[in-house]
Fold this protein.
Amino acid sequence: MKLQVATYNIHKGFSHFNLRMALHETRERLRDTNADLVFLQEVIGGHLMHPQRYRNWPDAPQYEFLADSFWPEFAYGRNAVYDHGHHGNAILSRYPIRRAENQDVSSHAFERRGLLYCEIALPGGRSLHCMCVHLALHERGRHHQIAALVERVHALVPEDAPLIIAGDFNDWRGRAGRQLAHALGVQEALRDARGRSARTFPSGLPLLRLDRIYVRGLSVEHGVAHSGLRWSRVSDHALLTARLAVE
């Protein structure tokens, strides 16, 4: 069985530097990937002010708007809550979501983070386990969150079950990837010719390697980092896609 997977930090539906609202274009770009599963970060679940400021702001939460008529299943994990709204991570799926749980792994009150877990029912009855993550900007917080992620996977995912961990790791030094490979036996889906993670930030001219897709129990057939000036009109992060085969 083949799976097309995408991960994208959508920057709350705004272009790089918040120059324009780009949520409608984001939806079209995601649909163009023809992904079976989409891992999203910085997704607004509700906002009181934006509908008044932006003429085309959708009535539905962003994850529902993006999933509409294309991905019948979705899950949202609310992480950051403020007076006028909230945002977090989301997973969109073409296959049934058997269960979904969100775990708060915030390292301090000013930077709210969570791990969104979903168990996906693949054709034939087999389960695919998914973790959508958005880790802290500072390394100390990331170290704590990686430990929580490892513990979560050990608690919820059988060792022989296929697993995908994807999202914005903010791991520009590459330390989180080594920790995950050692503790969970995952491999990274996108590597360049020198074996380094794909550059994903900023999307117009990527310099930092922040976004990742890690897999276990799946083989990687192909991976692409979608970046360049036209992508900076949609988000400040590049979009990653990977073609996977269930082993």
Q: What stands out?
A: Residues 139-156 form the longest helix (18 residues). The longest strand covers residues 37-47. The chain has one domain: 2-246.
